[in-house]
Amino acid sequence: MEPGIVKSRESLDQIRWNILGQTYVPKQMTEECFSWHASLPPGTFVPPHIHPDQDEFLYILEGRFSFLLDGQEVIGEPGDLVKLPRGVPHGIFNKSDSTIKTLFWVTPTLQLYDLFWALHNMGPGADPAEIVAVSAAHAIDFLPPEDSGAGQ
Fold first, then answer.
1. Cα–Cα distance for residue pair 81/60, rounded to 1 Å
2. Predicted structure pTM score
3. pLDDT in tens, 133-147
4. Where is the Cupin type-2 domain (predicted)?
């Protein structure tokens, strides 16, 4: 890794992913850590899932997130650091009327970068079963809707 600053409007290799209506902008990646800026428009979400082999973090920059964290609904606001340990089920929801901006990172990186390429531009009409299968092939396990307690 080269020392330096990744400016706010820059990304890793000029990548901007469209992940089911959300914009993910990768900022840095090593074998040990992968970070990206995310913008989640109102009404978008990441369904409850598990990272069996990664710890995930969010530093909330703008907006108010609702999380389902290990079966409990919790709220995250600007300046909050959200810790999502490996193996713990979690879902991420924008139930507000504003776009939420956050910095995500996972450790270790594993297959998440490749998963985002696989999900890029699948679109809002994507088959949920295909999303689940692609994610499982990249070591991210989505929970069945009846087990998620998401209660949108």
1. 7
2. 0.91
3. 999 999 999 998 755
4. 37-104
